[in-house]
Amino acid sequence: MKKFVFTANKKIRLLKFLSQNLPSYRYADFVFALQKKDILVNSIRVKNDDYIGDGDVIEIYLKDAVFSVKVEYEDSNVIIFNKPKKIEVCDGDYNIKDEYKKIENKDIFPIHRLDAGTSGLVVFAKNKNAEKILIDAFKKHSVEKYYYAVVSGKPKNNDMLKGYLVKDSNLAKVKIFDTEQSNSSYVELKYELLNQKDELSLLDVMIVAGKTHQIRAQLSYAGLPIVGDDKYGKGEINKKYKYRFQLLQAYKIKFNLSSLCELSYLNDLDFSIDCEFKNLFD
Predict the structure, then answer these.
(1) What's this model's pTM, rounded to 2 decimal places?
(2) Parallel, antiparallel, or unpaired: how do β-strands 44-45 and 39-41 relate?
């Protein structure tokens, strides 16, 4: 445990004061310390997030700050995380990019995105040259991305879904159409049925180049909504199973870079993780 001591210089909420003075820790760390009575104000242990004032002395005991998101692979050019649900990739108050910098004091550069409610592999570059190469590779469809999805419905054993995606920024949603629309993007995915139990099905989904909410929207449009998805899912199914996040996991990334590319060594490496939904089908 580490001990930190501060003297307040104005009236302010205790946890807000700690957040401002200990940026390498999360707000949740301070809440936990409060619950454990590991915070003292003027040598008195406190358990509430009360106001402190000018001249108050605050002591707090915390574990060493560590970056809690698991690193699946890292070299001098690339770092690949196994992103849990809840944390964003690079946006919002709690995201991988910012949290990594707080702890490691180094910048990393996101190459693609995953929704906050989607878990799994996400790629960052560790330098600008690698960022340029990898962003170009994603644009040229030289990277394959695979996902596990738990859906309700009756999927075929194998299928390919094609359509046109239109983004509605006002609603923060996308819509899928059978025919090309104004400002639409062509989207395509294929899936394989891996397992079934009752009304639930486990799919192995592959997309070459993903668009915002593509998998969630395309599967829902095909009558296969992802369980737990509050935007594109089925309300009665979500209510029945009580999942707070969509059951969608980015489990594999495969690079198909040019042999002349300095990052082509990534082509020969296996970037995959186990399915986190297996127990649903036991």
Answers:
(1) 0.80
(2) antiparallel
